[in-house]
Design goal:
The strands form four sheets. Strands 15, 16, 17, 18, 19, 20 and 21 form a seven-stranded antiparallel beta sheet that branches. Strands 1-2-3-6-5-4 form a six-stranded antiparallel β-barrel. It contains seven helices and 21 strands. It is 17% helix and 35% strand. The chain is an alpha+beta fold and 322 residues long. About 5% of the residues have low confidence.
């Protein structure tokens, strides 16, 4: 059970480094849950200083009790040889893949149907949440298990099935490992409601979850403009001409950014022409002038939370004028 593996435990790496069959090296577990390495989509590596070299991949990582806890997979090296930083796939993850292949002939992953990201201090405070421990829900995909279970954009996941949601990587891996049809209990922080409980029945990961992205065409002219000098943006109403010119669907509401001043706070926050401001803090935007009025009501030196739409997705941004 690789979930029970502790840092500091002695392990042995077996394999055929450089073609030398049945080679063994010893070391300790340096870390567990290593992710964000850019090796693969689902990362949850065991890190060890037992020497792993080319040819060790696929060999077992074994405890002194003879338990296989991982599969040697990758190394960090500036020379191509062992430098004391090796990585192994946890055996629990490998077992899930094995059982899925035997039972179904393919790897079936669980699907929640949310877009998530790390929770920053500014974003947490804007929702009245006094911690950065949590997984921030950027978007909830339509007709997904999360949508049916009551999730909303802006929710902050505090825990799931009794596990603390203090990092999005193990959260994502856990959802992928759930069997479709299983239930997961969530504790969620929601603005104006505080902590709430949600139960979601996990679905099956779609074969092609990608949505076609639109490419904006030349920006049309519109007379309905509003300028927010402190942010350095010019806003316009979403007229039929604007929607057609920028490929913005009818279900997207708000005010579109027509121009962004170079070096402005808006530019530094990543805003650009074609982005639609849908909400300022809790208020839905109805027009360009309404967006300007809402922005000018807030002290931008303390920052303001925006809900924006670009391409085919919406997201939250926190923007602050220094």
């Amino acid at each position: 059970d690789s979930d029970e593996l502790n840092v500091g435990r002695w392990v042995i790496a077996a394999g055929s480094p450089f073609g030398l069959e049945q080679s063994f090296t010893a070391g300790i577990v340096s870390a567990t849950g290593r992710a964000r390495l850019g090796i693969t989509d689902y990362e949850d590596f065991i890190q060890t200083d037992a020497a792993i070299n080319r040819g060790n991949s696929g060999g077992p990582l074994i405890t002194l009790n003879g338990e296989v806890v991982g599969l040697n997979t990758a190394i960090f090296s500036r020379t191509g040889g062992a430098m004391g930083v090796g990585f192994a796939i946890p055996i629990n993850m490998a077992r899930d893949v094995m059982e899925s292949l035997i039972e179904h002939g393919e790897v079936i992953r669980g699907w929640l149907g949310v877009e998530i990201r790390d929770l920053t201090e500014n974003m947490a405070q804007s929702f009245g949440y006094d911690s950065t421990d949590g997984v921030f829900v950027e978007n909830v995909l339509p007709d997904s298990p999360a949508a049916e279970g009551g999730f909303e954009p802006g929710d902050i996941v505090i825990s799931y099935n009794g596990r603390d949601a203090d990092d999005l990587v193990p959260f994502r891996n856990y959802m992928a490992r759930q069997r479709p049809g299983s239930e997961v209990e969530f504790t969620v922080w929601r603005e104006d409601e505080g902590e709430i409980e949600l139960t979601v029945t996990i679905g099956r990961m779609p074969e092609d979850p990608q949505v076609a992205r639109r490419t904006p065409r030349e920006q049309p002219e519109t007379p309905d403009r509003a300028t927010v000098d402190d942010l350095g943006v010019v806003l316009g109403d979403l007229t039929d001409e604007v929607r057609e010119g920028l490929n913005i669907s009818d279900d997207v509401t708000g005010a579109v950014i027509l121009d962004v001043e170079r070096g402005s706070p808006a530019a530094q926050a990543g805003l650009r022409p074609g982005v639609v401001i849908q909400r300022v803090q809790r208020e839905d935007v109805e027009s360009a002038s309404h967006a300007r009025d809402l922005l000018e009501e807030h002290d931008l030196s303390e920052g303001v939370r925006l809900r924006v739409h670009t391409g085919d997705r919406s997201q939250f941004l926190f923007i602050q004028v220094q």
